Amino acid sequence: MDVPKMWDLEVLGITDPIEKENESLLEEETLTHFKETIRLCEDQRYEVALPWLAGHPALCDKYDAAESRLRTATKRLINENYLEAYDNVFKQWESEELEQLKSQSIEIMKEGAFELRCWASNDSKEDQDKQMVLGLSWDVISDELSCKLPSNIDCTQGKPVTKRVLLSVINSVYDPIGFTAPALLLPKLLMQEAWRGKIGWDEVLPVELEHKYRLWERTMHFMSKCAISRRLFAENYDDFTVHIFTDASAYAYAACAFLRCEFKGQVTVKLMAAKARLAPMKKSTIPRLELLGATLGARLAETVDSILRTTSKTIFGAIQWWF
Fold first, then answer.
1. Are strands 39-40 and 227-229 parallel, antiparallel or unpaired?
2. Please, is 112 exposed, middle or buried when counting C-beta atoms within 10 Å of its C-beta (0-12, 13-18, 19+)?
3. What is the 3-class SS of the chain, one letter each residue?
4. What is the CA radius of gyration of the chain?
5. CB neighbours of residue 268 within 10 Å
6. pLDDT tier, 52 (very low <50, low <70, confident <90, very high otherwise)
7. List of residues 6+ apart from 116 with CB closer than 8 A
8. What is the pLDDT of residues 249-293, one digit of tens each?
């Protein structure tokens, strides 16, 4: 005989109606939660979400204590001149892990008949100072992008320059960002002059146009030395501002977008994108060309806007626009 049960009201058939009603309500909520959260997984197994109670207290964390200990340990390493050695140990571990990841990735993809190539590293042990990324030359040490010099420019030296050759040189420069637009303006103007003069594709350019092309050809090697930072956003920042500039002349109009980053009073400005267009062959007034430049700037701003909203929605609210 279970003596404690003799004193339970349920054994005697006496129950609290409120408690019974609460249990029934909880069962209904549980059944509703089950129906709303049950789903069939890809592996043909059923899954139900955990029935978390509403208003439950948040889990405690030790973030503040961990941050304080990290700052104390870092300060101690700096005072004892061990920070650099400590950092080198972790860098060595990271380097070994990356080498292992590379080998494993190659082997896994090889099993599926896929070949992984074009690995790049900024490790000083690797003899890979520059890599080609999306048609641009990437210096992995300085983390800068530059434009590759067209190979067909050397082929035109000492040979007649035709409209076909001129077009080939212009199209051989791949610059999706637009930072080489000023350097490519002259050959485009020469191409426009050739069209205006109704010169044939294989017809040699007039002496005056060919002379201008030769002068531009001699300075083309400087274009490969023009480099911009690959990284756009600063590691730390207090404020971002996007600036759009437009301008026009009788020959061309252009627009460019710059990102201005400010952190503790220090300001860095980086080019985001640029676009340039030749003025129409039909003569236009400067105010009309200025309007064309403003239109180009508005379209460029719309493109930059969509990219920023897509890549980082969290920082977009801190960015201001200037035209």
1. unpaired
2. exposed
3. CCCHHHHCCCCCCCCCHHHHHHHHHHHHHHHHHHHHHCEECCCCCEECCCCCCCCCCCCCCCHHHHHHHHHHHHHHHHHCCCHHHHHHHHHHHHHHHHHHHHHHHHHHHHHCCCCCCCCCCCCCCCCCCEEEECCEEEECCCCEEEECCCCHHHHHCCCCCEHHHHHHHHHCCCCCCCCCHHHHHHHHHHHHHHHHCCCCCCCECCHHHHHHHHHHHHCHHHHHHCEEECCCCCCCCCEEEEEEEEEECCCEEEEEEEEEEEECCEEEEEEEEEEEEECCCCCCCHHHHHHHHHHHHHHHHHHHHHHHHHHCCCCHHHEEEEC
4. 33
5. 13
6. low
7. 105, 106, 109
8. 999 999 999 988 888 888 888 888 999 999 998 888 999 999 999
User: Is the Cα torsion angle 178, 180, 186, 187 positive or negative in sign?
Assistant: negative
What angle do the packed helices 181-196 and 163-171 form, to 10 degrees?
A: 160
User: Partners of 271 in the beta sheet?
Assistant: 258
Which single residue is written with the structure tokens 């509403």? 54
Q: What is the pLDDT of residues 164-190, one digit of tens each?
A: 888 888 888 888 888 888 888 898 999
- The letter for the amino acid at 272 is M
What's the CA gap between 230 and 102, in Å, rounded? 23
Cβ atoms within 10 Å of 200's Cβ, excluding its own? 10
Pairing of strands 252-263, 266-278: antiparallel
C-alpha 10 chain-centroid distance: 68
How much is the pTM? 0.58
> CB within 8 A of 245, min separation 6: which ones?
255, 256, 257, 258, 297
Least confident of 105-109, 210-214, 246-250: 105-109
HSE-CB of 91 using CA atoms within 13 angstroms: 9
Determine the Cα–Cα distance for residues 164 and 113; give it in Å rounded to an integer.
42
| Residue written as token pair 């060919």 | 210
